[in-house]
Please model this.
Amino acid sequence: MDTSTMPVALVTGASRGLGRAVAHALTVRGYRVVADGRDPAALARAAASAPGPGTVTAVPGDQADPAHRRALGEAVRALGRLDAMVACAAALGVAPPPRLEDHPAADLERLFAVNAVAPVAMLARVLPQLEAAGGRVVLMTSDAAVAAYEGWGGYGASKAALELLTAVVAVEHPSLRVYALDPGEMDTAMLRAAMPGEDLSDRAAPDDVAPAVVRLLEGDLPGGRYIAAGMPAVPA
Ligand SMILES: NC(=O)c1ccc[n+]([C@@H]2O[C@H](COP(=O)([O-])OP(=O)(O)OC[C@H]3O[C@@H](n4cnc5c(N)ncnc54)[C@H](OP(=O)(O)O)[C@@H]3O)[C@@H](O)[C@H]2O)c1
Model:
């Protein structure tokens, strides 16, 4: 089978939560996926359980590490094209999130490094392949990027920085379609760490939110900021 015509997506943070759901949804749609996450065993399990005819190349590592971003870029190059980058990997930081005066500066720096600097540096590394394909970029943001919630200052500010960087990338690269997506609250490890002991069973499951990402990748929506709730899914 000639796989070179199958689209390729880079999905960061694909070992669990929303990234895993997106990677799985994309294999169902015939994408070849390059996926990362720091825990190699969890990433391998997520890759092995992908339900579609597409494939998942697992490249474990920390997205804040330039050597890991280089390895991801090489895995993309080996597949010969890149149609989409979906940036789900993110850090919550100190959990549960503390008030700003209690937030250690080293953790604030790590939040900006992982949540804002790393996705943009990763994007820079694969820009030639994305531009060649007229590709799409979806970066996960949060309502904490645009509203002031007690305890969410560090994480929210890192996502606000990511949103502005994303908007500038869009202006600088008009051949790409660049989206910031607020997925809304989801029942994932991140929200469970942020709200220990709370019943999150009424929150969305990552599999319910993944279709919003597919909509951005395959629909005709202009670049910009979107909120997943209420976005119509692309028909299967
Ligand atoms: N859950 C929510 O309610 C919510 C709300 C608004 C926005 N979001 C955003 O939606 C996205 C997905 O969130 P989620 O709830 O699915 O999170 P999650 O369950 O914590 O999953 C995060 C994923 O990213 C990976 N990851 C974390 N740090 C990484 C790093 N430094 N390098 C590489 N991979 C890393 C994790 O694997 P390892 O730990 O093994 O690295 C995991 O695969 C995030 O950008 C988050 O900020 C979530």
About this structure: The chain has a mean pLDDT of 96.
